[in-house]
Amino acid sequence: MSRTLCESGGHFAHRVPTNRVLWSFGLTVLGALALVYGLDAWVDVSALGQHDLVTRLAKEQQPSQLLVWAAAYDQRAWVAARLRRLGACPNVLVAGSSTMGQLNGSMFPGKVLLNGWMGAPSIEDFEALTAVLSGSPCTPRVIAVGLDPWFFNANFEEERWRSLTTEYVQYNRNDGAVWAASIRARGAWERIKERLTQPALLQTLMFLYYNRHELPSVLSPRLVDLPFAAFCSTIATNYDIRWFDGHFSNCPQFIKTSGQVESAAAAYVSDNTNQIANWPEIDARRASRFATVLRRWRDKGIDVVLITPPVHPTTYRRLSDDATILRRLNSLDSTLANITKPLGLVVERLRDPASLGCTADEFIDGHHPGSRCSAKIAQAITKVTR
Amino acid sequence: MLFNTLSFLLLFLPLVLGLALLIRGNALLLLLAGASCAFYALAGHPWFLIPMAVTTTLDFGVGHLLEREQSERRRKVYLALSLTANLGLLAYFKYSGLLVRTAADALATLGVESASRWTLFSSAILPAGISFYTFQTISYVFDIYRRKAHAEKNFLKYLTFVSFFPHLVAGPLTRHNQLIPQLSTISEQGIRPRWRAGLLLFAVGLCKKVLIADRIAVGIDPIINMIGSQGMVTAWLALLGYALQIYFDFSGYSDMAIGLGRLFNIELPQNFNSPYQSANPSEFWRRWHITLGLWLRDYLYIPLGGNRLGSQRTTVNLMATMILGGLWHGASWSFALWGFIHGTLLVAHHRCQHTWDSWPVSVQRGVTFAGVCLAWVPFRARTIQEAFGWYGALFGANGGYVGAVSPILVGYVLIGLFVALQLRNAYRGTLERFSPLRAALLGVGTAIAVVRMGTSSSFLYYRF
Prior knowledge:
The complex is a heterodimer. Chain A is 44% helix and 11% strand. In chain A, a hairpin with a 2-residue loop joins strand 1 (4-8) and strand 2. The longest helix of chain A has 26 residues, at 18-43. In chain A, helix 4 (123-135) packs across helix 5 (165-171) and helix 4 packs parallel to helix 10. Chain A is α/β, with parallel strands linked by helices. Chain A contains 13 helices and eleven strands. Chain B is mainly alpha-helical. Chain B contains 20 helices and no strands. In chain B, helix 10 (195-225) packs antiparallel against helix 11 and helix 10 packs across helix 19 (407-422). Chain B starts with 5 loop residues before the first helix and ends in an 11-residue tail after the last helix. The interface between A and B is large, with 49 and 38 residues.
């Protein structure tokens, strides 16, 4: 291949033809990015491509079965599919984040519970949920909604609701076809970006490393027909486990020790967990949209109760000791009061664990109540609903 | 949207470049101007376009008035109008908060409370890049006033000169006579991308910013947040880290800007030339943020008299230029202090040049680098008090206690020092001698940088 010679400072310098250099550069960049994208898509720790699979599993799941995966699956798809499942309409629907996730059916005697918790729900999730309820033959009698502080924090952005884009668009159908198209296009773009992020790649590599002995069967969520304890004895890594009624459990060998729980609680503010320390103001627009959702639920004859879930006692002390955070939390409580009062809805302020009698050993980390504290939350819900 | 985002790399740039390849003439200028305005709106907020539109339209008109007007008195009025508008916008958006805070502090020491309505000035949001484009338009108007340039007749071309997205937000500060002729050329002939020179330089800049500057920042920010209580070792580590962070961040961004310009067959001026390899403070300012240094020389230092009015006046002119240059960087007296320190270094070198030049080159470079690093303290510190706390820590006020030093941070600092102090910069033709193997290595680095750009995930469930 010929080379181009040029003078440079009195010496002849060899200049490699542009094509070879550019091809070398371009192919390397594109090849490496394609590899990262492909790896992230194959393992799918971000649960971007699981909607149809999880919908099918949710429809098929029987009371004796657990839905399991070595990472978190598409929870939105599961909740929507269960609400649409014929003949399985719950009396009580729990909505909110994993802080409500351990409420189970035995805590609501005489009632059918569906725990529709999902990881950090956003206002879009509640709007999509409303569309699911509107289109479903199922109308729960009671919806108990757990509202965590980050829900009204404008710095807290979530994209996981995009699994329910169709429902979200349906809820906002008055906004027109162009808006709907832009939402779908934006969702497609967010998914592409997600597969090229450092956190997704790191989680993918960790997933492959820790589950390397179970490949390839571990690459998608599945139903197991084993008792909980028996299933836990078969696994070497921590699994996401969802029961038929929707509540989650952790296998005993992966539950944090009391020392670890206490450390997590003590560091909740300093670690800026869930952006608690980066919270400029209550997002008024979200509050307004949430009020609309509540109104629609109430208008369907649903008894709605809002819960501010309890946090670990040490976490609560840390939150209370920070004047700015305390101000925000008080502001959040008044916002909730302003939203619910005109609608005649109930707010159960349970953030202080002492109000429920929840002790430190009843939490699985700084902000997730365990089953004993969750049972007390369930009692509080039952007291105020029919 | 900035250069180091996927939205820019995978959507905006391919779309704009692809369309630009197909058209020429005013259509091309309209595309570039429109895309640049869209870029600016997405980089900050759509309302940022308003002050830019005001100064662009005003200065275009003033340029024509200056060219046609013969009366010297009226020409001065037009010039004053332009300067007042440009500097007024800068004063309001950038410096009003500083002036209000300073006045309030001064009044407070006298026991007088300041009115709450003045918070309107202290809370103005700064439009990104306003310092850059106002200086560009000021130089355009000034050159027409001095009859060194002609007014541009084509408003689209002028608008594209002001808003051209590669240099809009963070430079290089580009003069009208550098950019407008090139815009004329590409308008007539269409763009012929310089793929190799552009893509490779852009990639080098991206790697400098994401793989070095951003990583160093993660390591030193926690140290600097508690700098007043740091020991000598960690204080110096943080200082060296910051000196490298700001260099790789700013020069990396400039490399990306110049690389992007080349894709549109536009050559933007060089902005950094291995400044930490300088042998004296004067040379440093010929190598660091070169376009700003030239602007300050041509439109501030020389109009003030430069070095033509005697030694004492030269010192005053130099100090004034450097202090104002410091304030250009940010609305805080600590930036003015940074400028003051550099002015002092320049004056000292000027006065002791004979002695300085007698030192071995390695000593000259070492002293220059040390002086520049020490000047970075007030630049990075949030307040003057914090700056003095940092100086105290550097010289042992809190002892030599090391505390926890991250070996990864030390590694990055050592790598950064080697690159900054020993290697040739990418602008100096090294890209022309790139082999396919080096290009492939750069490709690997670029891919890592692209993935590392996405530091957060909006989909992962593991956080809960």
